[in-house]
Amino acid sequence: MLDSNVRPAPSGVVRAYDAVSGKQKWAWDLGHPDSTAPADADETYTLSTPNSWAPISADDELGLVYITTGNAAGDFYGGTRTEQEDKFSSSLVALDALCRQ
């Protein structure tokens, strides 16, 4: 099977958009977890980080967004993953809906 055997893979960044304006509000880039600003036009998000394939859920009262993640690339062998990639691989994460922390 050749799927997911190659690093680097596309970024798993999760983005939040304003539903009215369509502008990007924040980005959760696992390679730079302390930076929430959208990437500039000449920047890229960290490659090969875990992504979210499942539906995302939110709790308006708590102000949280719940995100499940898959594995970082490569899916079948994790020996080359960084500590940050491993921290959020195959996880359920709750993020602050307003500021992504």
TrEMBL record:
UniProt cross-references to Pfam families, sorted A to Z: PQQ (PF01011)
Q: Please name the InterPro entries in this protein's record.
A: PQQ_rpt_dom (IPR002372), Quinoprotein_ADH-like_sf (IPR011047)
* Highest taxon above the source species: Bacteria
Output this protein's name: Pyrrolo-quinoline quinone repeat domain-containing protein
| The Pyrrolo-quinoline quinone repeat domain, residue ranges | 4-97
Give the matching Gene3D superfamilies: Quinoprotein alcohol dehydrogenase-like superfamily
